[in-house]
Design goal:
- The complex is a heterodimer of chains A (about 350) and B (about 400).
- By secondary structure, chain A is of the alpha/beta class.
- Chain A has helices spanning about 25-40, 60, 65-75, 90-100, 120-125, 140-155, 160-175, 215-220, 250-260, 275-285, 310-320, and strands at about 10-15, 50-55, 80-85, 105-115, 190-195, 195, 205-215, 225-235, 270, 295, 330-335, 340-350.
- A 10-stranded mixed sheet of chain A has the order 3-2-4-7-1-8-12-11-9-10. In chain A, strands 5-6 form a two-stranded antiparallel sheet.
- In chain A, strand 5 (about 190-195) and strand 6 form a beta hairpin.
- In chain A, helix 1 (about 25-40) runs parallel beside helix 3, helix 6 (about 140-155) crosses helix 10 (about 275-285) and helix 7 (about 160-175) crosses helix 10 (about 275-285).
- With about 400 residues, chain B is α/β, with parallel strands linked by helices.
- Helix content of chain B is about 35%, strand content about 20%.
- In chain B, helix 3 packs across helix 14 (about 335-350).
- The radius of gyration of chain B is 19 Å and the shape is globular.
- Chain B starts with 6 loop residues before the first strand and ends in a 6-residue tail after the last strand.
- Classes of the chains: A alpha/beta (about 350), B alpha/beta (about 400).
- Chains A and B meet through helix 3, strand 3, helix 4, strand 8 and helix 9 of A and helix 2, strand 3, helix 3, strand 8 and helix 9 of B.
């Protein structure tokens, strides 16, 4: 990746309270308050936004073109410059960042949402596996993560008490997060798939998030302390688990390198590690020491609305900078089984330049 | 600040057919990508990033297939983005890829769109029951037919125009080796005698259901300089979206389509599209959309589009050829259809469209739309590098 030619910052972030079910709400109803939250925070109207991009999944919604209804909620009239990725919202933010870099827009609205509650998310996620050789066997997301966790234990990188410690720390941190679904003292529970217990797994829940990006002086006008994106990159690995070393994440390391994460130490890291064992992998790949505050929001172990959880990591990291609680933060998002695809963004306050 | 100019240096398509039972989804996309690389005289290692698009995941029954396709598209260790903007997705995907180059994030990007409709049933993929919403059990034709009827009533177009478009596009397809439908015995009478499906849309005025993929290699100025073949240069590109339904919506000529075209023309410095643009690859899944979009895109005044069609202006040897490749009416792997329009536009200005080449095509528009006529993506490509 070449150095960015334009300074772009996260200037606003909003998210829903994440809940186990949201039967009484449509996706649009869930999303609307969040969109208004970020627009109100910046004083912008939909018609002021230069580019809009969203992330979601038809498979969660159980219908084709599910994002079209959400667009109606955005208020796309008069017509807007808009796009959608069938990915976590973190990648929608990446597309928006690219658009702002071209100079064709100065502000961007990015949003993502997901409702896991209407179906069985463990079964649904099996549909993203190789459709001919793997998906017909229905290996679910917890079983695949358990393979990875066992490989880490066998390799001497962690053990079950250490994993329990990750869960406890995350949910303790989540006590300060009013949006979290699981917080405080949560029993580590029985095995779901050995060696992963309920406490090692993310809660299943519904939620949405939105972010506003702005370039240069526009960002300074809209936010007292913009969270500047110093670098952002994402990389994908092979799909088949048989050809990957599940104890490592070379794609995360490469993305972090390209995002400039290793140039100077970060004080905060928001990691999209839905399973405790995956935090172990990411810490190693990112060379994060004990002095880095990991997932102060509680992370995905406290709330994991699929398709929005990665964007929330960027939003949470930015919010720490907005609030003066971080000078340089790393945000990470993941997609696919066992951390197949990873995105890393580095955010800084102005004084770090 | 200035953007990096974007050039198309490689184009690859599969031969589109009803069912490619000889390849997996991975095999299908690999075939198109390999052809684009060969055309560009590049290898997998020259590609910095991959941007892939397709229409709904339910069409093949694979959720987020980019994960499974990473290996087949040489994306391992690289960035890979997956775009989904309904029927306009093939065009949007190319524009997202182009922005990576324009923003100078990457030098050379592979972009690809596909649909392997034979793996599933597209009609029912679009017709899953949704709580609290009107079911759309008739597929796309049932949705668009009333809007065609509205166009006819509004403009007084004679009911023969739709057949003329279909007859032209199917004849053009005979000159395109990659087109799905090759109806060698096609006649205007046969089109007019075909069964009425959704009045006024007849069977032969609708698109087929295809398996296929289309890929392009996009690169920066330095990449274009290394290319031994003439590149196609991007002079403008834009996306516009509006809601599916709202009180002010004009389904016959949506505002988002007009705005999108206006943005592209502004970027490209086009003042009079009818005079300055040499040919158009237009997203026409039902024949009547040719005259409708001629007006929406500013090639004809309101109510006048059908007159261009009727007068033969849009024929391959006409003054403004439309869908030289045979268009969506002859080939429709839904997620790829928009990218095929963009790629065919690029083929024309590179002078590489073979039998369906328009002599002297210097500036050609590629157009795509989707959803309930609500998502639009377009690009204008030229034989010369942009000067603005």
């Amino acid at each position: 990746m070449r150095p960015p030619i334009r300074d772009i910052a996260v200037v606003a972030f909003g998210q829903t309270d994440h809940t186990r079910t949201s039967d009484e709400q449509s996706e649009v109803e869930m999303l609307m308050p969040v969109l208004h939250q970020v627009l109100d925070a910046t004083g912008l109207k939909t018609s002021d936004i230069g580019f809009t991009c969203s992330g979601s999944s038809d498979y969660l919604a159980g219908r084709a073109f599910s994002f079209t209804m959400a667009l109606d909620g955005v208020g796309a009239w008069p017509p807007i410059s808009e796009s959608h990725v069938e990915m976590d919202g973190a990648w929608a933010l990446y597309e928006a960042w690219t658009k702002l870099l071209t100079g064709e827009a100065d502000t961007a609205l990015v949003y993502a949402y997901g409702k896991s509650s209407p179906g069985s998310v463990r079964d649904v996620l099996t549909r993203q596996l190789d459709p001919y050789y793997v998906a017909p066997l229905w290996p679910d997301s917890v079983a695949l993560a358990a393979l990875q966790a066992q490989a880490l234990i066998d390799g001497g990188h962690t053990d079950e008490p250490a994993l329990a410690g990750v869960a406890a720390r995350s949910r303790e941190s989540a006590t300060g997060n009013p949006h979290a679904q699981l917080r405080g003292s949560v029993p580590h529970g029985d095995y779901v798939v050995n060696p992963l217990r309920t406490g090692d797994c993310p809660p299943i829940g519904d939620g949405a998030a939105a972010v506003i990006l702005a370039a240069g002086d526009r960002a300074r006008e809209l936010c007292e302390r913009p969270a500047w994106i110093r670098g952002i990159d994402h990389r994908i690995e092979a799909h088949s688990l048989g050809v990957r070393d599940l104890t490592d994440s070379p794609s995360t390391r490469l993305a972090a390198e390209n995002a400039g994460a290793f140039e100077r130490p970060v004080d905060t890291a928001e990691l999209h590690a839905p399973f405790t064992s995956q935090e172990v992998v990411l810490r190693r790949a990112l060379s994060l020491g004990d002095d880095v505050d990991i997932n102060p929001s509680g992370g995905p172990l406290a709330a994991n609305p699929v398709m929005a959880a990665g964007l929330i990591r960027i939003g949470e990291a930015a919010a720490r900078i907005h609030g003066g609680n971080s000078r340089r933060a790393l945000a990470h998002a993941t997609s696919g089984p066992c951390l197949q695809q990873n995105l890393v963004a580095v955010l800084e306050g102005e004084d770090q330049r | 600040m200035s953007k990096e100019p974007v050039a198309v240096v490689g184009i690859g398509q599969t031969k589109h057919v009803a069912a490619r039972r000889d390849v997996s989804i991975a095999g299908l996309v690999r075939e198109a990508a390999q052809r684009a690389l060969e055309d560009a005289e590049l290898t997998w290692s020259d590609i910095d990033a991959v941007v892939i698009g397709k229409a709904p995941d339910f069409f093949e029954g694979v959720m987020m297939p980019e994960l499974y396709l990473a290996d087949a598209l040489g994306a391992v260790g690289k960035p890979m983005l997956r775009v989904h903007t309904a029927g306009s997705v093939g065009g949007s995907t190319a524009l997202v890829a182009a922005n990576l180059v324009a923003a100078r994030v990457h030098g050379t990007v592979l972009t690809l769109a596909f649909e392997k409709q034979s793996e599933s049933n597209a009609m029912w993929g679009l017709s899953l029951p949704i709580p609290f919403q009107q079911p759309l059990l008739a597929g796309a034709g049932g949705f668009f037919a009333p809007h065609v009827r509205a166009y006819m009533r509004r403009t007084g177009a004679p009911d023969t125009v739709g057949s003329v478009v279909a007859y032209k596009d199917r004849r053009n397809a005979l000159k395109n080796p990659y087109a799905h439908l090759h109806e060698h015995d096609i006649t205007l009478e046969k089109v007019q005698a075909s069964p009425m499906l959704w009045d006024p849309i007849r069977y032969s005025e609708t698109c087929p259901s295809s398996d296929g993929a289309c890929a392009m290699v996009l690169t920066d100025r330095a990449g274009a300089a290394r290319s031994s073949k003439p590149p196609a240069w991007m002079h403008g590109g834009a996306m516009r979206s509006e809601p599916t339904l709202h009180a002010g919506k004009d389904f016959v000529s949506p505002q988002a389509g007009k705005d999108c075209a206006a943005d592209v023309y502004r970027q490209a410095g086009i003042v009079d599209p009818r005079r300055e643009i040499d040919a158009v690859e237009m997203y026409v899944p039902f024949s009547w959309y040719e005259p409708m979009w001629l007006e929406n895109l500013g090639f004809a005044d309101e109510g006048e589009g059908w007159k261009l069609t009727e007068a033969g202006v849009t024929e391959l040897d006409g003054d403004l050829p439309v869908n030289m490749s045979g268009g969506v009416l002859s080939t429709n792997p839904i997620g790829a259809s928009g990218m095929i329009r963009f790629a065919e536009a690029a083929l024309q200005v590179r002078g590489q469209a073979g039998e369906h080449q328009v002599d002297g095509a210097r500036k050609v528009l590629g157009h795509a739309y989707g959803g309930g006529s609500q998502f639009f993506s377009m690009w204008l490509v030229g034989a010369e590098p942009p000067t603005r």
